[in-house]
Design brief:
By secondary structure, this protein is α+β, with helices and mostly antiparallel strands. It has 6 helices and 7 strands; from the N terminus they run H-E-H-H-E-E-E-H-E-E-H-E-H. The chain has a 4-stranded antiparallel β-sheet, with no helix packed on it. Strands 1-3-2 form a 3-stranded antiparallel β-sheet. The chain is elongated and about 55 Å long.
Length: 148
């Protein structure tokens, strides 16, 4: 691998991290990351190949989802969201989140498709779930439920 390969990989990861922090314009990204606009456009076109969904709304680029970026087979994780946080889940568009049903008490049952590591843990999904806290329960997640 040439020195260009690791540099490009680091550049793509840095770009994804900036987009994950919030919507950005191309000019802001080029200035913050010290890229040329041509390099930025090429990198924005390559991010979807790595599992990052990019949306452009007006002048702003959005990172839609960072799930499924772990290489390997996919894992379906069944989740139950408490009634008091269902509005947060429904308001945020996640391309790998499928809402299955709403229970009588207002809880939301959903299935998330994500990547996993060699032990069957959905490590790319874990930070999002920890951010929600006690408002979500993993009903079925392969090896993840015991580890979480």
């Amino acid at each position: 691998m040439t020195t260009r390969g690791p540099r490009k990989a680091a550049r793509l990861l840095n770009l994804a991290a900036h987009l994950a922090a919030g919507p950005r314009t191309a000019a802001d990204l080029a200035r913050q990351l010290a890229f040329s606009h041509r390099t930025l456009q090429r990198d924005l076109e390559e991010l979807p190949e790595l599992g990052h969904a990019i949306e452009r709304r007006g002048r702003h680029y959005h990172l839609v989802s960072t799930w499924s970026i772990v290489a390997g087979p996919r894992l379906d994780v069944r989740l139950r969201f408490r009634h008091d946080i269902t509005h947060r889940v429904q308001a945020r568009h996640q391309r790998n989140l499928r809402i299955d049903a709403t229970t009588n008490d207002g809880a939301l049952l959903a299935t998330v498709t994500c990547g996993h590591d060699k032990h069957g843990l959905a490590i790319d999904l874990l930070p999002w779930l920890l951010g929600i806290g006690a408002g979500v329960n993993a009903l079925r997640s392969g090896n993840g439920r015991a580890a979480w």
